[in-house]
Amino acid sequence: MLDDAATAQPRASGEAGEAVLSVEGLTTLFGVTDGAIHAVNDVSFSLRPGELLGVVGESGSGKSVTMMSLLRLIPSPPARITAGRVMFEGRDLLALSPAELRAVRGPGVGFVFQDPMTSLNPVFTVGFQIIEPLREHMGLSKKAARARAAELLAVVGIPSPDKRLDDYPHQFSGGMRQRVMIAIALACEPKVLIADEPTTALDVTIQAQILELVKDLRRRLGMAVVWITHDLGVVAGIADRVMVMYGGQVVENAEVGALFENPAHPYTRALMETLPSVEGARREKLRTIEGQPPIMTRRPAACPFAPRCAQAHDRCLAANPPLLQVAPGHASACWLAEGAA
Amino acid sequence: MSLAEPTTRSAADTAAPLVQVDDLAVHFPVYSGLFRRQVGAIKAVDGVSFTVRRGETLGLVGESGCGKSTTGRAVLRLYAPTRGRILFEGKDIATLGEGALRRLRPRMQMIFQDPQASLNPRMTVGSIIAEPLDEHLRLSQAQRRDRVRSLLDAVGMNPAFADRYPHEFSGGQRQRIGIARALALDPGFIVCDEPIAALDVSIQAQVVNLLEELQARLGLTYLFISHDLSMVRHIATHVAVMYLGGVVELAPRDLLYASPRHPYTQALLSAVPAPDPKVEATRRRVILKGDVPSPANPPSGCRFRTRCPIAEARCAAEVPAFRKLPDGRQVACHFAQ
């Protein structure tokens, strides 16, 4: 069945240019006892069919909350999505009823969570957990769903898949469980796959296996992918386009080559300079970014990076810069980018 | 005793081995059945040998479950070794009694991975840092306070923070407190067990730079345990790569990263993503098949043979010797040249 999808690839290229998912002005707050945390501030981006968008940021930068807000997967309260539109197939996901949204999750947009240890249900077999969405969303019979589930396990590279369907999550290793999570997300052949730090908990050799798998699946199924990570190395290897987040907002958005060759935002630049690598020349001393990432207790009136920025000036403290174009398809939320393009 | 003045160590000392580990093994018994009889053992560490010279940093790398943390703890005798020798300043501490070991403790300290879990939330920062002083030294109140202040200052924190509690600090600052505690007794040797793994990328560099500064200033020797090969390349002078309880390759840093010889080291290094799309596009990646075998039941012969791309019949029959190559590195592989 998955091989059919390979021939159905025109889905990817046929409607190129037209965004499969577009997000405008998304804002999410968390209510806390003494006010609100502005976790996501006015985030906009779009995803083309077949594109892999890497979303990079440190903990608390808002990258996970953004993606979970898209599908309204965050518990509300405490979270409140206060503004924005999420357009998918001509409909605003934020305006859908719970039942309509449920029909989108799975066949429309699949989600892979970070921790494969806690996101699989330990009391059901892995087979049951893959079969459930197939029956629910694809309307397959019990028998057909089981056959398809075995196919999916084979696709993600789990040996003797038919036998493993009857095993429970604890009988799988961490890397295998993450593969199972991906198999579940792929079960309904989503147009968009959102993966939230899917390899962060895994060892590098297992991560390499998963990254190869995703590259291969993307080639064969032509789906668009949002890949959330804090690892610039992972992004360099698999992304087409990268969105860098800091303090709940997008600070830079560029094609992967342009981002690494010509990082425009001081945060992106600093981040790249703090990173050691196993390749290339070895740096004698690592550059550091002094200070701490911010906790957004107020709606930012200034640039969130200004307190740690070596190039900050008066204007950065007076007004929060919008995303400004530095080159075609390359934007940076920094006043220094003004007039650069 | 004061942190302000650098510890003077003679030039002759520099190359002398501070820690020498010889055929170290740590096995954890597995009990089962009605009478809880021992039915087997998890061979977490099985035949590890390495040397750390004064003032150097040995990076101990490997994936989860390879035994790197167990090795680090056994070297400090936080676990009792099943077999092997641990020479610290020339003296075997593998079988040392409690009293003698306690007298040695101030010379060897540890920095833990999770600064959240390794600092007592009910103690102030000052009393956390002073605890080793209270245990091992007799200081007056004033001396104790001065020492705590100079330690906080040495790790780049405001000495006035001594009266605060750990929860008031960020992850990076908590790790600094852990470092100050490890420095309290002026140790010569510190085992750093994944000291930056729990920190954000922009904070990791701060802590690593601090560790390097302290090393230069105080003449410290580190055993730096990490799964982050890029960071180990930055901080270590020598690197030991572990797999399933054993060291498969041990080499000076530049040699290891430039030309890894063991097939596992090659696969491991090729799997680390490089933060550069051009490098990534041209890199040849060795993808290992399958998962790490259980250390309760390791494969016969070479421990890596079940996933090794170049394994032959010989690898199942014969345990490869940990031999020295002409360039000075040590490798446990029949085919390494």
From TrEMBL, chain A:
<comment type="similarity">
    <text>Belongs to the ABC transporter superfamily.</text>
</comment>
<dbReference type="GO" id="GO:0005524">
    <property type="term" value="F:ATP binding"/>
</dbReference>
<dbReference type="Pfam" id="PF08352">
    <property type="entry name" value="oligo_HPY"/>
</dbReference>
<keyword id="KW-0547">Nucleotide-binding</keyword>
<dbReference type="InterPro" id="IPR013563">
    <property type="entry name" value="Oligopep_ABC_C"/>
</dbReference>
<dbReference type="Pfam" id="PF00005">
    <property type="entry name" value="ABC_tran"/>
</dbReference>
<dbReference type="GO" id="GO:0005886">
    <property type="term" value="C:plasma membrane"/>
</dbReference>
<dbReference type="GO" id="GO:0015833">
    <property type="term" value="P:peptide transport"/>
</dbReference>
<dbReference type="GO" id="GO:0055085">
    <property type="term" value="P:transmembrane transport"/>
</dbReference>
<protein>
    <submittedName>
        <fullName>Peptide/nickel transport system ATP-binding protein/oligopeptide transport system ATP-binding protein</fullName>
    </submittedName>
</protein>
<dbReference type="InterPro" id="IPR003439">
    <property type="entry name" value="ABC_transporter-like_ATP-bd"/>
</dbReference>
<keyword id="KW-1003">Cell membrane</keyword>
<dbReference type="InterPro" id="IPR027417">
    <property type="entry name" value="P-loop_NTPase"/>
</dbReference>
<keyword id="KW-0813">Transport</keyword>
<dbReference type="InterPro" id="IPR017871">
    <property type="entry name" value="ABC_transporter-like_CS"/>
</dbReference>
<keyword id="KW-0472">Membrane</keyword>
<dbReference type="InterPro" id="IPR003593">
    <property type="entry name" value="AAA+_ATPase"/>
</dbReference>
<dbReference type="InterPro" id="IPR050388">
    <property type="entry name" value="ABC_Ni/Peptide_Import"/>
</dbReference>
<dbReference type="GO" id="GO:0016887">
    <property type="term" value="F:ATP hydrolysis activity"/>
</dbReference>
<feature type="domain" description="ABC transporter">
    <location>
        <begin position="21"/>
        <end position="272"/>
    </location>
</feature>
<keyword id="KW-0067">ATP-binding</keyword>
Automatic annotation (TrEMBL), chain B:
<dbReference type="InterPro" id="IPR013563">
    <property type="entry name" value="Oligopep_ABC_C"/>
</dbReference>
<comment type="similarity">
    <text>Belongs to the ABC transporter superfamily.</text>
</comment>
<keyword id="KW-0813">Transport</keyword>
<dbReference type="Pfam" id="PF00005">
    <property type="entry name" value="ABC_tran"/>
</dbReference>
<dbReference type="InterPro" id="IPR017871">
    <property type="entry name" value="ABC_transporter-like_CS"/>
</dbReference>
<dbReference type="InterPro" id="IPR003593">
    <property type="entry name" value="AAA+_ATPase"/>
</dbReference>
<dbReference type="GO" id="GO:0005886">
    <property type="term" value="C:plasma membrane"/>
</dbReference>
<dbReference type="GO" id="GO:0016887">
    <property type="term" value="F:ATP hydrolysis activity"/>
</dbReference>
<dbReference type="Pfam" id="PF08352">
    <property type="entry name" value="oligo_HPY"/>
</dbReference>
<keyword id="KW-0067">ATP-binding</keyword>
<feature type="domain" description="ABC transporter">
    <location>
        <begin position="19"/>
        <end position="269"/>
    </location>
</feature>
<dbReference type="GO" id="GO:0055085">
    <property type="term" value="P:transmembrane transport"/>
</dbReference>
<dbReference type="InterPro" id="IPR027417">
    <property type="entry name" value="P-loop_NTPase"/>
</dbReference>
<protein>
    <submittedName>
        <fullName>Oligopeptide transport system ATP-binding protein</fullName>
    </submittedName>
</protein>
<dbReference type="GO" id="GO:0005524">
    <property type="term" value="F:ATP binding"/>
</dbReference>
<dbReference type="GO" id="GO:0015833">
    <property type="term" value="P:peptide transport"/>
</dbReference>
<keyword id="KW-0547">Nucleotide-binding</keyword>
<dbReference type="InterPro" id="IPR003439">
    <property type="entry name" value="ABC_transporter-like_ATP-bd"/>
</dbReference>
<dbReference type="InterPro" id="IPR050319">
    <property type="entry name" value="ABC_transp_ATP-bind"/>
</dbReference>
